[in-house]
């Protein structure tokens, strides 16, 4: 794997693992870090040997937000003209599933990064929060939109308007923001295990499933259902559908070729 300044990358079987690595700044998400995350994601997305990606941080911090030191002196016109931090959204173009393994702080942009992933697993000491209001700003990378859908309006408002109501791992689990809580030391392995399972499925169906689920956030039900059906029908043009169904009937394990 290529070497980067702010992240580490490694492949584990069919899984690409990205570790945010700015320990002194609690993985604060400076602009360059996100450029690197996007590049690593794009490389995994086009690598036929990879079926899913895991993003993690350290045991203390997944990411403590956008880099406050980097943005504190910016003027509006500069942020607007250069579409400041707009490149974060590039990761939503990635077709392969992305899993977040969140240990420690996932605050502000860190919480938003986790929510841009497809599945979130949390370590027992994880903390999710949107403290931007305390800095005189608001969430800028999806917090006001994705958090509402994840935890409902009242809790999202409480978190975003006070900046100090955070969710621990158990609360995040009960509200549906994360789908599993595991001991911190086991979190990455556990997340990679799920990613491996996903990576062992046929890629066309995995990617279309991700696309269809994400449609549900974008369009009315009737359009989402139509989209789903077309993708479902499209899969009958793949070898994996023939293989998957033949394997069931022949009572054997499917051997997907991602075709
Ligand atoms: N940015 C820059 N540096 C940070 C950040 C950050 N977000 N968070 C922590 N650091 C630095 C600290 O400044 C400190 O550096 P130094 O040693 O040079 O003083 C170092 O990391 C360690 O931090 P602490 O000493 O504060 O560690 P503690 O264990 O005492 O506290 C906390 C940990 C509670 C996580 C604390 O660091 C904290 O509150 N951090 C800021 C959290 C925050 O406000 N995050 C939101 C940032 S704003 C944002 O994310 C907006 C996103 C918008 C995206 C828009 C995209 C389009």
TrEMBL record:
By its UniProt entry, which Pfam families does this protein fall under?
ECH_1 (PF00378)
Task: Quote the PROSITE patterns the UniProt record gives.
Answer: ENOYL_COA_HYDRATASE
What Enzyme Commission number(s) does the record list for this chain?
4.2.1.17
Top-level EC class, please?
A: lyase
Concerning Gene3D superfamilies, the annotation shows:
2-enoyl-CoA Hydratase, Chain A, domain 1, Lyase 2-enoyl-coa Hydratase, Chain A, domain 2
The GO annotation for biological process reads: fatty acid beta-oxidation
Cite a single GO MF annotation: enoyl-CoA hydratase activity
InterPro entries xref list: ClpP/crotonase-like_dom_sf, Enoyl-CoA_hyd/isom_CS, Enoyl-CoA_hydra/iso, Enoyl-CoA_hydra_C
An example Gene Ontology CC term for this record = mitochondrion
Keywords in UniProt for this one?
Answer: Fatty acid metabolism, Lipid metabolism, Lyase
- Give the record's family classification: Belongs to the enoyl-CoA hydratase/isomerase family.
Q: What is this protein called?
A: Probable enoyl-CoA hydratase, mitochondrial
Instruction: Please tell me the species this chain comes from.
Output: Absidia repens
């Amino acid at each position: 794997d290529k070497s980067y300044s702010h992240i580490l990358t490694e492949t584990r079987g069919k899984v690409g693992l990205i570790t945010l690595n700015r320990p002194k700044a609690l993985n604060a998400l400076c602009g360059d870090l996100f450029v690197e995350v996007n590049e690593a994601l794009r490389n995994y997305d086009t690598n036929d040997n990879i079926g899913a990606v895991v993003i993690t941080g350290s045991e203390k911090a997944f990411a403590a937000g956008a880099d406050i030191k980097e943005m504190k002196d910016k003027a509006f016109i500069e942020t607007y003209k250069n579409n400041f931090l707009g490149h974060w959204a590039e990761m939503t173009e990635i077709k392969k599933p992305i899993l977040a393994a969140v240990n420690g702080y996932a605050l502000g942009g860190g919480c938003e990064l986790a929510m841009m992933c497809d599945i979130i697993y949390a370590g027992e000491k994880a903390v999710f929060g949107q403290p931007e209001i305390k800095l005189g700003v608001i969430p800028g990378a999806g917090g006001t939109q994705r958090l509402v859908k994840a935890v409902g309006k009242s809790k999202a408002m409480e978190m975003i308007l006070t900046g100090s109501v955070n969710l621990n791992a158990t609360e995040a689990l009960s509200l549906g923001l994360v789908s599993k809580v595991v001991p911190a030391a086991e979190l990455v392995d556990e997340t990679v295990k799920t990613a491996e399972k996903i990576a062992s499925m046929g890629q066309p169906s995995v990617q279309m499933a991700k696309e269809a689920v994400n449609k549900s956030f974008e369009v009315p039900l009737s359009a989402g259902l139509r989209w789903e059906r077309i993708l479902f029908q499209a899969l009958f043009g793949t070898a994996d559908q023939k293989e998957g169904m033949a394997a069931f009937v022949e009572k054997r394990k499917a051997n997907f070729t991602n075709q």
